[in-house]
Amino acid sequence: MTFTAHINVMPLKELLDPQGKAVMSGLKNLGLGQVQDVRIGKHITLQIEAASQEEARQIAETACQKLLANQVMESFEVQIQ
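Structure for Phosphoribosylformylglycinamidine synthase subunit PurS, as requested:
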């Protein structure tokens, strides 16, 4: 069975997000001062062939731990469909 893994990788909240700060500055320059904070991350979609949804989740989490996310600086969240 084929499952789709949606993975969001975000910088840890404790770390500065230079891209987010740059976008925040740009939004303020555009008159959008109502925006309070910006964090920029990555969205990754994987098509996974697995016997079950739990097996697909384990494969996606392993991919994140080994390659897709730098766990020193980033967190990740996996959703399987």
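The first helix runs from residue 18 to 29.
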